[in-house]
Amino acid sequence: MAAKQYIWLNGKFTDFGNAKVHILTHSLQYGSGIFEGIRAYQSGSRAAVFRLGDHVKRFINTAKIYSMDLGYSEKELTDAIIGLIRKNRLQQCYIRPFAYYDDTRIGLSTEGKKISVAIAAIPFGNYFQNKGKGISCKISSWKRINSEILPPHAKASGNYRNSILASQEAKASGADEAIMLTTNGYVAEGPGENIFFARDGKLMTPPASSDILMGITRDTIIKIAEEKGFIVEEREMHREELYIADELFFTGTAAELTPIVKVDGKKIGSGKTGPVTKLLSDALTELVTGKDTAFHDWVTLV
């Protein structure tokens, strides 16, 4: 991290160490914050922010679902992110917009409570330590939340308690990550990742109806795969289909494209990163760093 780093907080650049909240802050007590995750990759001497507009729109949509008035327009948030990357002099980073109820009064009600908006931009590497060799997963006993419980299409802090329980269970069993099922028993996603299944030359991924977050990296991989001639199906998947897949992988802003080589102790395909996974991973890398201009409007150079 550079010697001097800043957080954008309510329209101002604040020293990284001074961006603090009170212990009784509503969103700390009740998990009522919302957030977004964005990556910027080094492209020459500049930072290339991937699908910045789509991420900002999803952040605003999450706020709308939870009836939060952010007080900032899409352009103002976009400009704040670009300004923060420049201020922190970063060429690659993870960007975390976050909105929260900045109020210390006890009680669930959000009425009349101030909403603060913060943006952090910090250096960030691989999310999974074993990403290069592929990771192992365990199908969780914890089911994925659905729209009758909490809106899974929103990136809200409280939603991720569900994810944390699943991830803790997986790691306690010796796996790297969990795979979560819907309450109907279909494959949903990882705790913070979408999942793809390759078999017989086709690529499959669970649909919106499987209680998934509609991932931006997921959408990217679908479009890359289709451009390369793959048939991509969005359909419900049974857990046993994972065991007989030729290849499995996770996608996500943090996870990028991470191969899954074992599920519930069963080797997936060859037990190594497969050719489809490698092809799509390499294509994603070319795209996010601005080397592939097929989707040039997805990259914002700073």
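the 2nd protein, sequnce then structure:
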Amino acid sequence: MNRTWLLFSQTVTILVAVWFVVATLKPEWLEQPPRLASIVPVVDVSGQGRSELVAVTSLSEAAQRAAPAVVSINTRTAPAQHPHANDPWFRFFFGDQAHPTPQTGLGSGVIVSPAGYLLTNHHVIAGADEIEVQLSDGRHALAQVIGTDPETDLAVLKIDLPDLPVILLGDSDQLQVGDVLLAIGNPFGVGQTVTSGIVSALGRNQLGLNTFENFIQTDAAINPGNSGGALVDVNGHLMGINTAIFSRTGGSMGIGFAIPTSTARFVLESIVRDGSVSRGWLGVEPRQLDRELAQHFGIGATQGVIITGVLQNGPAAAAGLRPGDVVTHIAGQPIRDVAGLLAAVAALRPGEPADIVIERRDTPMTLTVVPGRRNPTGRSR
């Protein structure tokens, strides 16, 4: 027993001595190996839509793919002249006030077509008399406004330059909370900047920013000047158009919002094809169903969207929709809230019949409606 203990103590003494020598002369040998990555996103390594879990040490490849297609946008708006601006006496007394300086604006955009089509925010170019686009390679071009959609805060521009870099549009419907994202734009006019973050939330609405809201929320830094820029995934594919931030200081506070590519694609295709965005309209007044409304209309359901008003001679009235009906599906799409109903109705093609599934006093029914064309300045549903 004593011999065993002696052998153990000698072994420990030798190991401690070795550790002391190594720690003194070669401390790096004792350091833990670096972690492969602080983030481990799911990436498409095959290029065939098949994703695998791969450790990523850098997002530089995604940035290099997407950044060339992100542009800076400078706008110029001529101020309204005073009606007496050319009167010599007025100019004598008021001087340069007769000719105020032009207003300028700053934003970002994304090239989405080799033909020169760009996506940006409507508020970036609204009212501008001149729009100049600067590419990351230093080239400049004046842009033509193809069309705008204020209800989603999107605009489509066109520039005429050869060999344009183009971003690939991704599938924003596949995003999940926690996915890694990059925001690319020109914040504060300092030049093209890339920031990283994750998807903080999906389907944000009722923010009072747009008529149609279905925002991606991210903590990637978005600042003034980023509006209209790209929100991309780890493959460099466009997932959204950066559009707004929540801030008490004017700078990023980790709450930014982007319009998903699914919405941007619809607006882009509609404007390029028709020159404007055409949306469906039913002529109803919906409300979120609660217990009080359920009791008032004498229905058993307590969740969903209830119709509280139907416009006389409107598409919904012609289809037989009545106040008190609870809408559960529109064109096969489940309806859970008023925002979902608004989006589903807007997606209908004017003049093309669509099925609406309702519950009328707890009895399921299917009605066929022919939606009209929505007037952006009129009723929204």
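DSSP finds eight helices and 23 strands in the chain. Residues 2-25 form the longest helix (24 residues).
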